[in-house]
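Supplementary material to the annual report.
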Amino acid sequence: MFNASLKQLSSQLAEKKISSTELTTEFLNRIKKLNPEYNAFITLNEDISLAQAQAADKMLASGQAGPLTGIPIAQKDIFCAKGWLTTCGSKMLSNFISPYDAGVIERFNQAGTVNIGKTNMDEFAMGSSNETSFYGLVKNPWDVAAVPGGSSGGAACAVAARLAPAATGTDTGGSIRQPAALCGISGIKPTYGLVSRYGMIAFASSLDQGGPMAKSAEDLALLLNIMVGFDPRDSTSLQRDVEDYARDLQKPLAGLRIGLPKEYFAEGMSKDVESAIEKALDEYRKLGAEMVEISLPNAALSIPVYYVLAPAEASSNLSRFDGVRYGHRAPSYSDLGDMYRKTRAQGFGAEVKRRILIGTYVLSHGYYDAYYIKAQKLRRLIAQDFTEAYQQCNIIMGPTTPTVAFNLGEKSGDPIQMYLSDIYTSAANLTGLPAMSIPVGFGDKNRPVGLHIIGNYFMEAQMLNAAHQYQQITDWHLQSPV
Amino acid sequence: MQWEIVIGLEVHSQLSTRSKIFSGASTAYGAPPNTQACVIDLALPGVLPVLNKGAVERAVKLGLSVGAKINSPSIFARKNYFYPDLPKGYQISQYELPVVQGGSIQIQVNGVEKNIRLTRAHLEEDAGKSLHEDFHGMSGIDLNRAGTPLLEIVSEPDMRSSAEAVAYAKTLHALVRWIGICDGNMQEGSFRCDANVSVRPRDTEKLGTRCEIKNLNSFRFLEKAIDFEARRQIEILEDGGTIRQETRLYDANKDETRTMRTKEDANDYRYFPDPDLLPLEIPQHWIDQIKQTMPELPQVRRDRYVSKFALSAYDASALTSSRETADYFEATVTQLPAQAKLCANWIMGEISGQLNKEGIEIAACPISPEQLAVLLMRISDGTISGKAAKTVFESMWSGELDKNVDAIIAAKGLKQISDDNAIEQLVDQVLAANAQQVADYRNGKEKAFNSLIGQIMKATQGKANPAQVNAMLKKKLAE
Amino acid sequence: MTLTVNDVKRIADLAYIEIDEGEAKETLIQLSGIFNLIETMQAVDTSTVEPMSHAQSVVQRLREDEVTETDQRELCQSIAPQVEAGLYLVPQVIE
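Predicted assembly:
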């Protein structure tokens, strides 16, 4: 049951082989047993989860169920969920019971899924190892000495350790794909604007995008069918016709032109990752795909550009955390200014403060043009690289991360090394392109390797097709550490 | 040395939308604290802004009414600073590419017309309110006002006296009400002025260092604050000092301005385009649509009143001080087009005086334009005298006889004696009874004439047509 | 570009984050490294490139001017640090 696909769970529920209440109870018990080791969840709320399961059972009984009704989903603690503690991994929100539901949470509720718990994450989604969480680090279930990746580290761990059938994540610079790769699961960041950002606590508004994390591409397609949709409360939400993301899963890949950016296959990628990626590409050749060498000349700039734009937006987005209306307030202070300064010094962790300071600096008088505007111009050049690349290929592939999961504590003292974990992933956020990671084997110390698939705008169905076809002839996605 | 005062105004005009600029919360004034602050206004984690179409339409109306350029696209930016009444820690405003750019407004001071150029007008959200009543040494924050749409209208430094500044503010105030984008209620803070004031030696070009004066919530304070500030600056300069660029607060109780913050501790606002909002496009067809919903502008009406009704510029201005007044005038004058001046005099005189006295708006005037027109017709056709008309007016105001002019005239016996024979008889009688005064008059005592008129009017209880009496008496005395 | 401890203190002050001397010095070291990475941007000529603010070139959608929100004060203030008489309380605001 813990290894079952969403489709299998759905038919078991539909055929009354198991009830949602039973399924939810099973997963809650497993979480209670294993979470003390992994720390994948920040908050469990059995009463709400079971109430949702019972409601789902009623829907199932009355024949009003949708494809995922009754299935437990782990929600990243960045999504506001009414009545749930919603911390975003921060001390700042350690007492924030959300009075409202995020757009994504509403869509899951309407679909009748069960919120099984809120997953751990890097504080305000700032991190690549899940070590910046105020609620403690998360361990990689493949090797408890390794990081699970971040910021959606709790979600990746929960899916990999089979603590939940599927999870939600958010991705600002790689926060779905990098932990998916490091934990050996599948995850997709859709085209910017497809998944509502309403109620998803903002890190960098022009880069943030929610998406699903699950065992397989097929599961991701079913989850995207729920998560994607226009939300009038988000000005950047796109109004488009409803798509079935599972529609092309079975298409043969013959003739698919896969672009391989030479910059991604150059120095920086470790040997073990390279070897797993090459093997995966061989499988694609077997499936009939054609490999095309392409170039993304400005690829190396995506990290500096990202580390200007994301902190700039974050420094402003995080100004609302001031101890006035909700969240942490310093227990003692001398005056108003002191209350603000102490509240924010205490409520934010070191990495969040670092990024607020970077962002404040690049926006400040005299530096705005040299940093912020410069980065926005380079952002356009990076986007143009992709536009040109898609003249020559349908889809782009490469490694999701330069190395397999590093050890806990290995990079936590060195922000720059940590930032470079996003070297392949942040371009998709800067451009808004859809991108995903799927497991393609193991590298050093038997830690998972992820294949990065970047599609053209709105080509999620094609990407899922490519991923699914690969998963039909391989079984990396079925392997579980526990 | 002769000094010249240079003034530019920034006016925050609260737009009359039902809901806030970025949320669906109500903008109604006076609700219990924080009952109109929704999760978006409170800046809860994760909430997002969506722009109110009504706010954009109102900004476009202002732009069209001052002949400005409507920018498309127009961009929203974040102005970052911390303050407890600013929930997000930034205000959504516009920096580069405001909705409205340029344009101008005509003002009149002592009968002289002057053109004041506008720099820009941009959309932004209002902040909440800090209440300083003592809550155990703390302040209370009410965020009902947070997110209310404002249009900040910025003028060029084109004004040269407090009188011009007041005329500009009043003209703009009348305009925003005229085009229906702002209720103009200054007590409730719907129309707030900041003044940038500097002085320079007369006949020089270079602008002096300016000070911005905040908190000018009436036209009188605007005038007094500018006068005080100009005097202050001139005194400093004449004593050999220099002006420090700063923001000053006007204290109405002491009638003075004082330092609020200096340029040194001015904020670094770190403006940048708001990533939650996309470029605002205002296509021409939408502008055309908005244009069609707009009333004829006050300047156009003013010109028409002068050319069509031969009114003075002063009268035309007074009648167009508000759209309601102008509409009232037009509804009246259509009934008697040849008597525009009479209509104007009565509206600006009796009607306006009585409205002021009772503190009511012209829209709620108990006498309708049609009823007033009937009264004025009775004056112009000689049925009643101007003096009697005032009596009729008072009766109408208090609602007597259903405000029926003719019924009131009849009931009060106010009909003028206009019959020539009747008047001749009257005059003859009075002349016969006052032989001495007739003799005095003929001996050159002019005063005797008025006394005779008085006698005649007294005999008719004031009902004789004074012009006819006058003419008849002159004729008889000359015989 | 060389950052100084005073720059760090100034931006911490702008960001309203209390920082002591020791933290400022430590932060300076980290930020200097990050800005060295960021400086690599300057090598590219962007004089003819338009800045890109959004991932999609779409325009702002507008809301109809309608009141859609109801009073949620009680719920929202149940999670507030300090309230009285419906107001959020903060240390005295001095204007």
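Strands of chain C lie at 62-63, 83-84, 87-91.
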